[in-house]
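hi! just following up on the protien thing from before. the input was this:
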Amino acid sequence: MTRHFFQTELLQNRNFVRLWAAQIGSAFGSRITRTVLPIIAIVSIGATTTQVGYLAVLGVLPGLFVSLFIGGIIDRGHKRKILIIADLVRGISIISIPIAAWFGVLDMQLLYVVIVIVGSATTVFQIADNSFLPILVPKRNLVEANSKLEATDSIAEASGPAVAGLLVQLFTAPFAMIIDAASYFWSASMLARIDVSEKITAKRGQAHGLFSDAIAGFRLCMSDANLRPLLLVNVVGNLFGGFFFTLYMILGLTMLNLSPFALGLVIGVGGFGAFAGALLAPRLTSRFGTRRVMIATLAAGSLTILLIPASMINPANGIWFLVAQQLLEDMFLTIFIILAMSLRQRVTPEDMLGRANATFQVLEGAAIPIGAILAGPLTILIGFQQTLWVAAVGGLFVIPVLVFSAVGRKG
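and the predicted 3d structure came back as:
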């Protein structure tokens, strides 16, 4: 299977290979940033729990605001240049941390500024990246291309924190960020080598602005027979998935009495499942068709979440429930995500793809903190294990949304 992964027609496309190389640098850079910044805050600055919490929030919320208006800019602009600028902005912002540490002026205010800039630039990169791929790759190769990108992303997700920890040990936390910044500069250099003529398809005479672009993207997603159910599936899934942002660590460390190391290993298993899913996606699609595979993998992935509350039935063996859940859910949902993204890229008009991607980014991103906030009070009202069951069962509502839709019937 892996041999076929590296011996395909798509790898003859030099522009895609360069985009893939850029994505590898960006993917590892994002994980290093996410892991090392809190370490710097705690170890180098002595940040309080509240300050670390602010750092986490500032890494997410500005990106949601940026998503509102960046879609139209991406549609009307040169996507390759936008990607390069996003990488350079991230690299320059990150390099300010070791410089500040060298001069002894590193503080939380600088970390807050850096995380806001990096988080916003990462959002821009993700939306532009998803909009740029269909320019480089024929529609028939989109599933394979997204599979390759998702495979390396899963490797970065699984190994990125460990790489970050090793860099901190070797260079100390602030100076590990030099390697982090280099990953973004590498990405920018690979993108600069892509040789493609972009046709700006968005009508420049159209009214555009913060709200008109956001409304246009939302209207398109809600009116399209493929995009509307995909958006609803992602929002509902993220809403109930947000519960586990609050509860999962408590479940592992407190209810199942796992060590932080053991729980980290459990979470890391998901990366192997995601990698397997990325390898399987093109083959399953060619054999069974997009719609059937999407329904089957979404249903299977959603059902595996029931293993999370089930782990409390027998806490002594609860870790194995979590291992199975991480491995299977990430495998099935990675396949679904690859097919859903490829379908979005095929059916969305080219001059609206940035705004459609931005709509998904905003609504998906907003659903997670809502679920995370609801989880705490609900545990007080009905109990911890019962809340886990509510989240797991609630996530199953995505299955009928997809089954009774027209997703994948055309396009």
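The mean pLDDT is 87.
The CA atoms of residues 24 and 226 lie 29 Å apart.
cheers
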